[in-house]
Every structure is written in structure tokens, then in C-alpha cells.
Structure to design on (362 residues):
């Protein structure tokens, strides 16, 4: 087939200024004690791509400015709004009080497979946990829903930034059909 | 809600031996000159999670054993079958001759949005390109289909390992409804 790659100009990406005033996907991503700043940077880049409302960095999660974050965020720390909380619980309580549905991504006794979940809310918090320990146990009672990505391999789970990409893609697809993003 | 995290034992993941004899998703992933061994390791982990047929490493793409691959593959180089080719074209031609549909992941004049694509084949090659340059131009005429992930941010694209996770998840979901994985 006759085919040509699209340049950055042809892709017509928004500037940081016009991104800032764009309608966003009504989703706040919370990183609960994510250890690797490379993973944090990768979340910035994904939150930029899917035009998310905000990225919350909590606990030991690194914050900009940070060299390792920059390596994988490649500048998206300028476009994505972010906020830091000392504990993930503070962030969860703040958004719960504002009427956000609190959704944890974790393999639990109550998890719903990601592809089986129907989005019924238009204000959503998605929490992703530490690379080794996952979501902090003490957060589990505060969740309204727990989602997991069905998987079939030998390992416990996916990389957290890859997992984030999959979940945010699924929400972007579904919310895109019901509201403007 | 009453909720408890699942341990690795409770998740009942297959051993490397039983994974080896499991039915796999009929998808071969080809990495075309991927520069970062961390990204390669991440693809190993995702290919394990979704039980893919094979991971092809081509050109400058690093191969196991490799310390950086191990950091992100965390052992999945043992479960996922892989093969090295000097050039991506050799791999593409081999699988094309075996009746595989050749699908490139790239933003081009002919790209189909990932969520709009209907899978009609049961032998598929998915090619992911270099972090900076994307798919090599010379490969484009060999593609049967080109797919892209719709995105709305300021940056050119997603991280390649995150992009891989999203595409493989979408194929796993769709193929899971039509064949055994």
C-alpha cells in the first residue's frame, strides 16, 4: 500500500498552552508509593497522550523536577497537571469528598476484569500501586471498585507503567464514546 | 467492601514448563531496532502476561542474556520464546511466507485507529519500531495493515513498551473471544 509516516507537524498535536485549556478526560491518576522515577515519567507521558485531568504523586513517588522522570516523560511534565500528597489516603479522601469514584488497580478477591467493567461515573480516581507490593493494604477498604487486567503468564503482574497504559487506554476509549475528551 | 489481595499462589500462575505447552495467542511481536533494553525487557514481561507465540528481536534490539533486559523482564525471558534476526525485513518475509498478516504500529497516512480495527486473521505479526524514529520507512510497503493508538496530547507518541501493552491487550481481548488463548 501507498503509505507515508506522519511528521509531528502533520499530527497536529496541541501546544502546551492549548492542551492546558482543552477538555480533559475526567480521570485523576494516583500513584501510590511508586518506586521507579522512570515509571513515574512514563505515566506523565501516557497522561499527556490521553489528556487526563491530573496525575497525583503520593508517598515515596518521585516528583518533578527529576532527571529520571524526564528520561521517560520527555517534556510531558510541562503539559500534565500534577499534585503531591504525603500519603495516598489524603488524596483518596480529598477526591472521595468531591464525589469521585475511587478505583484501585489490583488483583484481589473482589477484582472485576478490566474488559468487563462498565463505566457509570464521570469523575474517576484510578490508583496504581508500588512495583513490588502493589496497592497498600490499608487503602483497600476505601475503594469503590477494584479492577484487574486478566493475564495468563508465569509472572505475578505487568509492569506498572504498562498496566497504566492499558487501563488508561480502556477508559479513554469508553469515555470517548460518552463524553468529550 | 471486604477485600483481600491475592498472593502469587492464589493467582495460580502456570509454571514455565506448563506455560511452554499452553495454547498461545497466535501473535508474533517483532521489535524493529528498539534501542532501550529496558523496553525490550518490558515487552518480554507483557508477552508472558498475554501468552504470546513469540517475540522477535531484530537489528540493534538487545537480546538475552542482558542485565538491562532482566531488570524489566524479571524472569520472563525464561517463559517467552524469542528469536533474533539481523534485519526486521528477514523476519517479516519469513512470517509473510507462512501466511501471517503483517501489521505495523505507526502513525501514517494509512493508519487505522486501534479500536476501529477488526481482527480477521489468526496468524498475526505486530511490528513496533525504534523509540525515536518509529518503524523503518523501508518496511512500510511490506505491511498489510498499519494501526495507531488515537491520542490527544502534546507529544508525538507513547513510550514503545506502553504502546506495546495497549496493542497486545487489545488483541488479547479480541482474540480471546474468537479463539483459545
Amino acid at each position: 500500500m501507498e503509505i507515508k509516516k506522519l511528521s509531528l507537524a502533520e499530527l497536529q498535536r496541541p501546544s502546551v498552552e492549548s492542551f492546558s485549556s482543552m477538555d480533559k478526560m475526567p480521570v485523576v491518576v494516583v500513584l501510590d508509593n511508586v518506586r521507579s522515577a522512570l515509571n513515574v515519567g512514563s505515566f506523565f507521558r501516557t497522561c499527556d497522550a490521553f489528556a487526563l485531568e491530573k496525575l497525583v504523586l503520593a508517598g515515596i513517588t518521585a516528583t518533578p523536577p527529576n532527571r529520571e522522570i524526564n528520561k521517560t516523560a520527555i517534556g510531558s511534565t510541562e503539559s500534565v497537571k500534577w499534585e503531591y500528597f504525603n500519603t495516598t489516603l489524603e488524596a483518596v479522601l480529598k477526591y472521595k469528598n468531591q464525589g469521585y469514584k475511587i478505583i484501585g488497580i489490583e488483583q484481589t478477591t473482589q477484582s472485576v476484569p478490566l474488559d468487563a467493567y462498565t463505566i457509570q461515573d464521570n469523575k474517576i480516581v484510578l490508583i496504581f500501586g508500588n512495583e513490588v507490593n502493589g496497592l497498600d493494604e490499608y487503602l483497600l477498604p476505601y475503594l469503590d471498585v477494584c479492577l484487574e487486567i486478566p493475564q495468563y503468564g508465569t509472572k505475578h503482574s505487568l509492569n506498572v507503567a504498562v498496566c497504566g497504559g492499558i487501563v488508561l487506554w480502556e477508559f479513554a476509549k469508553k469515555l470517548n464514546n460518552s463524553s468529550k475528551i
About this structure: Chain B touches chain A through 64 residues (CB under 8 Å). Chain B has a mean pLDDT of 95.
